[in-house]
Amino acid sequence: MATLNTAHDPAASLAYWRARPLPLMQATREKMLPFARRGERADPAELAEIVLHDPLLAAKVLRTANQRTRSSLASDVVSVEAVVLLYGVAPFVEHFVRGPTVEELLAKDPQRYHRYRAQVLNTRFAIRLVRDYSARRHDAHPDEVTAAAVLLGVPALLGLLADGEPDVPGSVPLERLLTAWQTPEPVLALCRERGEATPRHAMQHATLRLAHAVQRGWWQDEVTHACKAIAQVLQQTESLVWRILVGRMLEYARHEQWDSLGWPPARWLAMLPGEWPVPPPPRPPAPPRPDPLAQRLQALHLAGKQGAAANHIVSLAVHALSEGMTMRRIALILISPDGKVLRTRFTLGVPEADPLCAFELALDVPTLFARLMQKPQCLWLHGDKRVEWATMLPPLLIDQVGRDDFCAMSLFVHDKPLGMLFADRGGDAPLSEADYQSLRRICQLTCKALAETTPR
């Protein structure tokens, strides 16, 4: 029977561990907390699987359930899922996420934390392997087998927590510790190394030996002996036992975080004869893709400095909207020579039958577009703004531009309005605050470029 230490008084060690809460992993706490919000809508089995991924927490859950005050009719608890059902999902999470985490306790000893994580992964592997083979045996009480595998991993984990601590009083045999935790007798019997010679007990310990031996390599003699022992209990071929083992090894190599411990998953695979393949040279990183919006903004800036024509500047603004901001419909709407009407002059991405192509709106009516002509500015019609600006959105305007969210920016040369640019994306690609800020930048650069190229 395993012990935590071999040097001191078992009674003092029992008192030591009784006075200290068993910690949980930080990752386990983060996975459990959302279940408290989901309450009874959560799946108890899913929560139990998360707990079983943290063997010391699973041991704490079983210990707490079996040490509870109960009547003579109350039954023993051997599964984590049964404890979840006993408490209820939300109370269970609230109770068991309390207390310290392993990361907090071992924060100053990264090497010991590294060893602890490695032992957790090894224990998870052993638990999963025990469950696989017990399912093949059609065990009538698989929860007992799982609980025993969890508790047999406790000494190594507690030993790592106590390693180097000055006040650890001594050793404690695992059976004495589990008896103090009021562990049910069927589970305790499976934990005894020299228990009753039943097929169930023989396969339990052969599986644990197999899980331990395979960590040192599949070619170990103990791996072969354990596979034979399991095959005899299952009355199946050794090849079947081996296939189950290999399948579980490959799953853990792919999905568990062995690489974070410096253990490449290939450590479990066979070494093949022949030359080691030379890895291909790394591909050079792809050159960064230019930002089309940044390019168009830079072009607008240079156009003003270089004295470009006004129509070229407006063309650059249109391209900034279409290519830089992926606008669906764009319309250049200018003020008529008499200054009384806004009319569409140019469109991009607008079907011929769209009323926007023939847009016309009088400026003497107080509309949103008339307000836009008062100074260089831009606007974004969306959400609450529709209610705020409802009096400035007459049916004539909405019928011509459509009912989707849109943005618009005025075009000025110095203090004289020329017209505006209208753009939208449609309902399937709504505009964002970042899009609005990009629009403001286009508006500022366009008006600045027009002013720089046109004398007062």
From TrEMBL:
Domain of life (superkingdom): Bacteria
InterPro entries according to UniProt: GAF-like_dom_sf
Name of this chain's protein: HDOD domain-containing protein
The species this protein was found in: Chitiniphilus eburneus
